[in-house]
Amino acid sequence: MKIVYSHLLNFLEKKPSLAELSDKLFQLGHEHEIEGEVMDLEITPNRGDCLSLKGIARDLNHFYKADLDTEHYDADIPESNLAFENKAEDLCPNISFVEIEIEGKVQAYAPYLENYFQDLKLNKNNLFTDISNYLAYETGQPTHCYDATKINGPLVLEKRNKQEKFKTLLGSEIELKGENLVFTINDVAVDLAGTMGDESTSCRADTTKVLVECAYFKPEEILGKARQYNLNSEASYKFERGVDYLAQEQALRRFIAIVSDHAKIKSLALKTEQRKVDRTKVEFDSDRLNKIIGTELSETEQKDYLNSLYFKTEEKVVVPSHRSDIDQLNDLAEEITRMIGYDNIASKALALPVKAKKIEASFEDLCRSYLINNGFFEVVNFPFNDNQDEAAISVDNPLDKQRSKMRVCITKSLKENVVFNQNRQKDSIKFFEFSDIYTKDGNENKLAVIVSGRTNKNFKEFNSQLDYAYLKGLIKTIFSEILGKELNFELEQSKNYDLYEKVYCDDVHIGRIGKLSKEFVGSKTKTPVFSFEIVLNNLQLPAKKQSKISDFPASYRDLSFSLDSHDNLGELATLIEKHKESTALMTDCFVFDLFENKKQNILKVGYRFKFQAIENNITDEETEAVMNPLIKESLEIDGVNIEGL
Amino acid sequence: MSKPKEIFLPSLDREIGAVHPINQVKFELVKLLTSFGFEVAEGPEIESEEYNFDMLNIPATHPAREMHDTFYVDGMKNVLRTHTSPVQVRCMLEKQGPMAFVSPGKVYRKDDDATHLPMFHQIEGIFIDENVSFAHLKDLIYKICHSLFGEEAKLRFRPSYFPFTEPSAEVDVLFGDKWLEILGCGVVNPKVLENCKIDSKKYSGLAFGLGIERIAMLKYEVSDIRDFYKSNLDFLRQFK
Prior knowledge:
The complex is a heterodimer. Chain A has 19 helices and 30 strands.
């Protein structure tokens, strides 16, 4: 809301400098920017009462003594015989109308009215509309002006569900839909209540007889209407935030006074309906107020602050009708604190009685560290896309169609991250993301990893490409080293993958690993992309237990297997794993060499086996007792031979 | 005597990666706040309107509940949480007595422009005990801000409006000659305590919330918030 410094001073007895006033407004919570004399205030949504010169002046009363006396038309006004039916009394309990007829030439605008338009660079319209706009600026109370000669039937206020065309007084055509609170004449909407009137009944430069309506509408009834119909309405902005529910007739009497400053009034008539009259009352509790703020103010001091804000401090605190935001003691505490100044409240040492707890590392923490140490960068992606998965949760009001669904996996986001970087000539990409994924089937905490390009940028690994074996080794290492668990894999097919395996942990399907298809990746570069995505729910770190270690020397055996095809590799690995698990003496085994010559159809794999006993030196007999059956059974696999045997 | 050839060979350099800068700041804040005595609590990102709004004294008529501010899902039955405060509601409902929780996480607002994102991160804290006041809140906020920005950091408390706190404040920190808004805080509105079955005559509460992107932008001097979510390797490499 823009106000002009000099306009505000008209309503203050003391005249602070602009800088002093600015500081005080910040203290009161009215953030603002200043350009010349114009202050653009950001009034918080609960302070509809401050959306005017008088409203701000009231808030400054404690510091600069507000002078709110403006000229009003105080004489008796004859009762209007306006035919008005209020079919929405609960939504509009208080409403007043005044009919004004003027004659003769309209005088040049009085300085206060002229300055309003000049200083705020506003366009004039016609006398009545201009006064209406100024009145809202001065008092915060919106009014609506009908050209009285265009009202050719009873005026009805009603909430109705009717689809109808509506041309606003600004000329835009809208279609009213759903339930709307409207003023109607002969069943035609002529005013979208609290938001904007229509063109057919609006005032023009030659209007001499006006019907001015001034109402209190329940804020929730006005809320969102201007946005719904894409209307720019100062009135609805004020009504949404709450106006003074007792100020309607007074505002109209001020309207008349301003008219009389500019034209000769030929006739006047007034109609007022007032149903909401009870003031909010709050129990006063001086001790409790001090406890909320942390002060030791006397009851008198507290009441002085409240009185300066127009509260009546009787047995109970009577809230002024312009303060719709106050209904409890904490609200009063805030008012007192604002007057003192938040920065002037002395801090009190706070000791949290809760003892600090050490945060235990989680699987996610350890996993993150491992990945970082291996050159991976963590990314965070937005959860929205346009996937067609049946399990995807739809966003009812998406930003756009491309972001209308919640993602069902992380991999697609990571794939887009890879393409983004490939397009920027990045040739070694290792990303990971942890995220909760929400679907119709529930939510899962997931980790996804994606790789593409060179393994590392050093002279040994520059020409080595990140591939399926790299990624499979990564996920297997994470599980074996951090969780102490071995994974199982099952070959499957999927449209987005050239190669795809399901991943199992403890016989539970936890995710997938694969080589993404070129079509799915959609990158200009041909570098293959590999990813895995796993569910982390229920993965707990094992309790750390110390096992006895051996001081006796280890013994090693190496075997070089010759294989007919890659198919034999899995069977051989399973066999070796079975034998390893069957004895405590074999403490380690791993592939130390893999040689492949496709032209000569040669595939060789070298295994190293480590043997060690806890209580004694291991003997050759003990080692052979494990190795001989392993060798025998491996040779029973079709296409497997051991060189040198 | 000739030098060994090994010393002339190039070293076998291997790049390490980096935690995402937003998570780095989040972890630092969690570490700081847990050192004060707060426990960490987490909750779902898809929330009911009851937990996201009603329990927090955000009425059905509040602008925040309109379709243009909040993402609705499940046929308007649920929302993507607009703040992490629902986690605190769950904590209060579970634990009636004194408590101190922080809840870090992703939150969602229907916004997407140069300075606003549809998803961002918050960390919010709540402390409930007997006789805690606005003056205590100031002490807590000073401790947090001094830990984040140094003991010399100058703070400014301004009245603000949050339906779940009363009095409510926004806190600015002076950077050079500019006051920058850092966090929102306040005394927990007794209506919220009562909604969460906590005796508001016996207990009072303090609450605060920080936008993690905001802190990260200040800490790392990032001028465009959108850079955090482009996953550009050149950007991410700077946060090792």
